[in-house]
Amino acid sequence: MLIRTSDNGFVHPTSSDITPRSAYLQRRQWLLAAAAAGATWAARDAWAQNTVPRPGKLAPLPGKPSTVPGGTTVEKPARYEDAAGYNNFYEFGLDKEDPARYAKTLKPQPWTVQVEGLVNKPGRFDLEALLKLAPMEERIYRLRCVEGWSMVIPWEGYSLAELIKRVEPQGSAKYVEFVTLADDKQMPGLRSNVLTWPYVEGLRMDEALHPLTLLTFGMYGEVLPNQNGAPVRLVVPWKYGFKSGKSIVKIRFTEQQPKTAWNVAAPQEYGFYSNVNPQVSHPRWSQATERRIGEDGGGLFAKRRQTLMFNGYEAQVGQLYAGMDLKKFY
User: Residue 286: exposed, middle, or buried by beta-carbon count in 10 A (0-12, 13-18, 19+)?
Assistant: First the structure.
């Protein structure tokens, strides 16, 4: 018998209906079908039978299966505990565990995002309006940190392009700037001078409009945890993780390239584009390989895997950089 879960709408066989052998054969059939079809839906359905369950820690935020090309990888998602417990959010400290430890002080509601600059329809959007602006989708993306580690994370949100088209950028708008909240009462890490606050990131307009660029409100079928950038963040899966600004309070459309936080702090190490590129090393380490958190223990001595060009999204985004010297524009 098949049952449908109340959490996310996925259909699962009951444990009494399958044996380990039949489960293996079913799984193999699903993956072969996905490979043969080469379709996002098939891949998504294959993982639906073995999905990471909703953690049940925060409010649910379900998303419909994404049909965006590249929007669903069939790689195994990280454990929620790893995704929510091992991350960078310097506004709450410099260690990987600091955000989960200290981000309880962040107040994700009420929340507004100011949209300004070179647009015909500037304005202030509260969280409720943003949540209703477009249907939520689940995107299962690879996340690659510039430090050489990676995860696979299911996110909930919609393409940033949905918001962009509603505010009507002017022809002179060439870039989009994203500003993170900077409130020292909520963010103890702001006492550090490691970066200039507030944290600022930016994209070229065609990057911001790409359907894979996700305005993100949740992960693992629930609203974002504070430490992962609640209540709204960006996820740009073909770039190193620091390009995906968290806890966004302002989106500004500009003619000039934004001065982004890490590019200002260390321009010789962190370029504006910061596309995942195994052929361009960080000045202090190679980017040719990565360690997948949770895989083989995920420790410093875990087996490393080859880094993929554009983090595996070359087919979808490579044309954005046609003719560019990716070593110069790193």
Answer: middle
What predicted TM-score, i.e. pTM, was given to this entire model? Answer: 0.85
Question: Hey, which bits of the chain come out as E strands?
Answer: 2-4, 11-13, 64-65, 112-117, 123-126, 137-144, 149-159, 175-180, 200-204, 214-219, 222-223, 233-235, 248-254, 289-292, 305-306
pLDDT tens, residue by residue, 255-288: 999 999 999 999 999 999 999 999 999 999 999 9
Question: How many other CB atoms are found less than 10 A from the CB of residue 161?
Answer: 16
Instruction: State the Cα–Cα distance between residues 298 and 82, nearest whole angstrom.
Output: 10
Helix, strand, or coil (residue 46): helix
| Assigned token pair, 187 | 């963010």
Q: Which one, of 146, 142, 137, 100, lies nearest residue 277 by Cα?
A: 146
Token pair for 189 = 């890490």
Token pair listed for 208: 């911001």
**Cα-based torsion angle of the residue sequence 307, 248, 178, 282 in order, rounded to the nearest 10 degrees:** -30
